[in-house]
Every structure is written in C-alpha cells, then in structure tokens.
Predict the structure.
Amino acid sequence: MIFIQLDACEKMLEDAQSTFPDECCGFLFGQEINGERHISEIMIVDNAKEGDKRRRFEITAKDYLRAERFSLKFQLELLGVYHSHPSHPAIPSEHDRVAALPFFSYVIVSIFEDHKIDVRSWRLNDERQFDPEAINAPPLEIQASNALTH
Amino acid sequence: MATILIPTPLRKFTENQSKLQVNAGTIQEALQDLASNFPDLKKHLFDENGKIRTFLNVFVEEDDIRDLQQGETQVAHDTVVSIIPAIAGGSI
C-alpha cells in the first residue's frame, strides 16, 4: 500500500496538468513503515527526453543524484518515481517495464483533455513484471478535482 | 580497492549497504565482483548477453563510462564508481 499525502499529491497532479500534453516526471520521498509507504514529499524534475515528450519521459543522471542527495539531507527514503500518461490509461507500457527498477513504486498519473484523472501505482516483481500496488484512492480523487479547478 | 556507490533501489540486494569496496581493474570487473558477492543483483546489472544494462548509467567520478572506455574503463584503488539508474519510460 502506498499513501500519498495531500500536498504531495496536489503538487504531482498540478505537474501532470501543467505539463499536459507532454509527460511529466519526478521523485517520491517518504517513509516505509511495516511495508506501507507514506509519501510526504515529491521532487518535480524536467522531462529530459529529446523528441516526443508526449509519449516518453527521461530523467537525467544529474537529477537522479539530486534526488539521492535530497533523501539523505532530509532523512527521507527515495521510494519511487511518478510520471504522467497524457491521454492514456495509468497502466505501464512495455517501455516503462524495460526501464523499471525493483523496490521503487512507479506512480502513473493518467490525465485526459477532459480533465479525467486516474492515479495508480506499480511495483516490479522478481520476474521483472509489474504488479499493481494499492494506493489511497479517496484523497487522490479529492486532490484531482482541486488540482483541476486551479 | 575501488568504491562503488549503490543507488537506493538496488540496496535491497546489497544488505542495505550504500557503499561497497571491490577488487577490480576495470568497470566490468568491478560490476562482476559485485554480482558475484550479491547474486540477486546480477540481472539488474547485466543483460542476457552479459553486457551492462542499457538502463544503467555507470559513472567513474564525474564521467559517464560511455564517454570513456565503457566496461573497459580502468579503475584505481581510490576510484569512486557510481551506479545511477536511467529513469525513463512512456505511455506507449
């Protein structure tokens, strides 16, 4: 189970909205307690993909190192990555899977032009396939509607 | 012995250690040494052909080994090697 605090969630959804129709991306920080992940901070980073940012995202090595340093500085665990799927469902693609790492939560924000939003989280299993990770849905729904009225 | 910095998502395979010492003359040897000490790490470091995975960046100090001699890049006893996951994906 992954819980995303409301302010962190709002920032993530605003990023997805302001970046639309391109993909946004960033890091998730927090704590893991008894197998439950509590995300309290996000770090928005540039989508460094050269070319089609509507269908692809990439995070530079420099931004990755910045995220590792942030986690050390604030004593938060680097627990995952989020990115958006503009006009596509929040289901990982083969491209997502091939690049994915174990341990990380992969939160995908599906956002459509009509402002319909869906947020799901995924974890890579030992066979390098994605399994869905339960996510706290009600606050996400509240924040989705808030983000889109800004 | 060279030092290898392990990124957060791979630490579950290194008994949560973020920094390890390896005996190696090249990057390829350093990563192989790491994989032999932590076998579950191997598939996350190398592809099925034994090459360093495409979605893994390996830096020697501040330099990407792709700009050096790839896996044959030399390492010294005081070299710091960073494994940096390439974070990428997309909707299709």
Notes: Residues 37 and 59 of chain B are 21 Å apart (CA to CA).
